[in-house]
Amino acid sequence: MLNRISIDGFFAGPNGEIDWFIPDPEVDKAAHQGAQADSVLMGRVTYQLFESVWPKITADPKASEEMRKTAEELNQMTKIVFSKTLKRVTWENSKLVKNDIVEEVRKLKQEKGASIIIFGSGTIVQQLTSEELIDDYFFVVTPVILGEGKSLFTGAKKLALKLTETKNFKSGNILIHYTIK
Hints:
This protein is α/β, with parallel strands linked by helices. It has helices spanning 25-34, 44-57, 65-76, 101-110, 122-130; strands at 2-6, 10-12, 39-43, 78-82, 94-97, 116-118, 136-142, 150-151, 161-168, 174-180. The strands form three sheets. Strands 1-7-10-9 form a four-stranded mixed sheet, covered by helices on one side. A four-stranded parallel sheet has the order 5-4-3-6, sandwiched between helices. A two-stranded antiparallel sheet has the order 2-8. The radius of gyration is 16 Å and the shape is globular.
């Protein structure tokens, strides 16, 4: 799981806004190196946001080399989209799943070689955390206090984590990596 959070623990503002992120290519590079995966889990909101941006970046001459590389990797990754309302997904290598997320992820984790990551998708993180189905938690802590917003772990049960790594960046962002104890 890789998510940006504010100092007060929100992954999005009260209306889902993420305009408070402090962009930093060094943070993106470090997060990318730490959280390697070949599949990504997303809910409808994250999928629609990503699909509206990332496929276009590979052909955007104004995009940085790192952004184009990330876009190409996202395009190639298997994208597993959990939604009860979407009728179909059109981004290449995407699969729409309407089944129970917990059971589906248990099945995915049994497959050999599959490395899975979650970007955003707070309700998915909440459900999978409660079932202890997330092995690694990567947080980019942004030096911002939102005061209110969407908490990443609302309704999740208590879970002890072990600090694996921290990295500080000039932008004020901090990358923190935890694993389950």
